[in-house]
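task queued by scheduler; priority normal; single chain, no ligands, no partner chains; default sampling; output format set to structure tokens
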Amino acid sequence: MAEWKDLKSLTIDELTEAVLEAGEKKFRAKQIYGWLHQKLVRTPSEMKNVPKACVEHLQETHPFYGVTEVERYVSQIDGTMKFLFMLHDGNMVESVLMRYKHGNSVCISSQAGCRMGCRFCASTLLGLARNLTPAEMLDQIYAIQNAIGERISNVVVMGTGEPFDNYDALSRMITLLCDPNGLNIGHRNITVSTCGLVPRIYQFAKEHPQVTLAISLHASNNETRKELMPIANRYSLTELMDAAKFYVDETRRRITFEYSLVKGVNDGKKQAEELAQLVHGLNCHINLIPVNPIKERDYEQTDTSHIAAFRRMLEDRHIQVTVRREMGRDISAACGQLRKGYTERSGKE
């Protein structure tokens, strides 16, 4: 049986096995799977055509894990929605709904907290509480789709946590999300972001070649990256770029580099030149991000003119680059801010 025994984390084959063990006929598995992953039921009792005894038996060995909405905020600027969800054990995670012309995109969390320690990120300030199950990742998407009554077409695993630090659960979540018997979201409509766990990049390229990979780079040289991101002490920039090149060669797909601009740290002409040289010849796209200031750190956001100048320097060197549109700034939509604020208000650690 799977490592994750909760009902919504089971594949259709595992659910079939569980149904047969419960003394039910095989067709019940597809019924239940449809309730969970297409009709997106919030409680087992909503599975109307499944015998109560079958549901009760399954719950004894396969608990029904999901998320419960605690708070919701809607941006008055752009309509972005931020959700704070509670897990079954009281831990909190957050998710963001962003509306675009091409469809609804949801950014989900993969862990409750984070242990990566990136200096500019609020997610890491409280450390890592635990990994999420595949079901708990999926259910953020399901809960939001139910809440808005519209289909979610794109998923970004870029919320709280380091997805590759919870790799096996992430991998299973992707498999379930893309299943034709479930939401059937296309692999190319999923993006996973990593701060740079190099061995997992190689594994991901082989196991999920159609899923878009984004690497949080945030620096153009090793020294600055170590200052901003402790993971750089484990994997050098050279090792990271070798893994990125492997991903592009293996998948034949473009890779995205996330680059948060921090005033006076990584936003100068020298850094732009180094960055252009670093990615030269690689099929990639650079996403410049104005850093979200957090009160526990003294990092400041680069001003608009410097952002524009940094972008021009990259474009002049024929690098594909965009500046991320800031969404939900008025509702603390950046990773970790809402969860941390709730924890402080409630007096919980």
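post-processing summary
- Residues 22 and 53 are 9 Å apart (CA to CA).
- The longest strand covers residues 92-100.
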